[in-house]
Amino acid sequence: MPSPSDHPRRLIWFCNTESVADHPETLVRLRDDIGLTTIMPESHVCHTSGFAASPEIAARGPFEDWREREDKWPKAAQGIYPPVAGTVSGYDDGPLLSLIDSARQAGIEVWGHFGLWSYGGEVYPEFALTDLQGNSLGREGSQSAWGTGLCPSRRRINEWVVDCLRALVRRYDVDGFCVDHARYPPPANPASLLACGCADCRRESGALGYDFEAMLEGLAELRSGMAAADAVSLLTTAGEAANLWEFLSGFGGGDAARLWFESRAALLAARMGEFREAVRTEAPSMVFGSDLFAPSIALLGGQNYSEWEDVTDYLTGGSSHGGVVGWGTSVTNLAAVWAEVICDRVPGVGDEDVLGPIYALFGCGHLQLPLTRPGLEQGGLPLAELFEWEVSQLVKLSSGRVPRYPPISAGGNPKLVRRLCRAVVEAGCEGAMLSLDPANGAILNVLSEELGAL
Ligand SMILES: [Zn+2]
Asked: What is the CATH architecture of 4-207+267-353+381-451?
């Protein structure tokens, strides 16, 4: 097993294809100023690095008719592609080709980027996640701000994604891939937690050794055990449990919940292994991976860190805080939505009864987090402490056999950015995935001072 000291050090910039293609001098400056090694470009118009799908790929593409689905995807009117899996035709790859040239001249690696499953179900309901009975997630699932996922077990999509990857390796001079949306929708979306129960997921789950019917029976037993308990004792038990799994196993169904989430994660990991194999078949030196949900919630979103180490070449994330995948705000986002659902359904229960127990179940009861939803919405969260805690979980959940590049959103307050950088260095990680504004000299100074130690 390679030791962490053998792993490549990387500072990866999650950048915008068009704007960096217009300002290629930025690459040389960031290389010299902060030690940038790699870019992962994404176009905000097509949600890939800006690839053009080949005619053969487009001919078999499941998502080619998106322009005719304006009723489900209003942004089609502005020419903005829906976030779906693989590569969709019609995009001009001129900016990407020019960016790759500039990166080559600067000696900087390029990682290609495209999406997989966690969005697109609202535009393509025929491929969307279903509930445990195989029915549409319905209004609750599809109206969620967190997105509606595609089912991860549709062979038509996954086999075509394999071909997309192989075609991209042949057509573009990239050094690897960092795919996006390699997950179920965020666990903050409660409707998506009990998905997918379609025939394809049952088949793939069975192929991995899971007994789907037994899992459903266990989940039903758990559900009736929880329904029989009163709200006060549920919340008291939650506040005292060692973790979410211990709490849930106390209501019958054995370890049904844990088994269910492990089975979902195994489905995604199996596909990721196939995708990496496809890439390596074309070019053995190429690296393959994806961003991950924050360690504390990843298994609920379909990502098992230790399995991910088996099927990808590095562990990283999308952002350090904010947005859908921000590590430091994952539990607080989830807690706000879960508290709303619980308070709406259980008479006499308020935020202050619910939020503390939710934090305890996820292991961050020791942090000073707001105990009301307005408090969560007002901001002022201890972002540095939350991020440091998530990075410590990353170290616990991973073995170090692949490099770890946690996400650092390097905008805003330089003091916060300094603490985020220190958390990564002090945890012994091998680099970071950076979001940054190359015109912000104060932030570049912080990055240079703090990440130079890598
Ligand atoms: Zn499915």
From this structure: Alpha-Beta Barrel (3.20)
